[in-house]
Amino acid sequence: MGAGGVKVRDLHWDDFEPLANSYLALYDERDAEGTIGISLFDERPKPSGEVAWFSDLYRRVLEREVIVAVAEVDGRAVGACTIAPAGGSAPPSETSHVGVLGILVERTHRGRGCGRALMERALAEARGRFERVRLGVFSTNPRARQLYERFGFRSTGRWVGEIRRGERRIDLEWMTLELPPGDGPKR
Length: 187
Prior knowledge:
- The chain has helices at residues 16-33, 47-62, 114-126, 142-150; strands at 7-10, 67-73, 76-85, 98-105, 132-138, 154-165, 168-178.
- By secondary structure, it is an alpha+beta fold.
- It has a single domain, classed as Gcn5-related N-acetyltransferase (GNAT) (Aminopeptidase, 3-Layer(aba) Sandwich).
């Protein structure tokens, strides 16, 4: 058990409901405050779409194509960190050596070590499977950027106005972490 009672583990089939609910809650957060630092669809996805997304994610985990670390508190999933090949699904492409990181932590568990614990686990699994990991972070989310910098991510560019939230434009900063070769199993 990690800091704040956080346990980080592999993805389980029964994580669907808590993770889908955590994701859908971001839409309420965005609509209420507009400040959530993650890009979302214009409209909240339908439940059938979430089922399809999770089924595909779970399949890709079983096939060792995607890394998913899950944060659990009191027996319930409260966040997840994924690293997927930049080239998408099989067959491998010229960008499959690059992993794309995404992270989600329920609002009530942010700032309690969940993000750090998720990143530690996901990046440990990424070593030897990817040569580089990249992510995009909102310019309006300095807390997330600081977390990524603590893990060694460095800014590699900024796409000005990439996110359009209502009438507001937000810059998206790209960050990259180079992973040393030979630190783990190959894909």
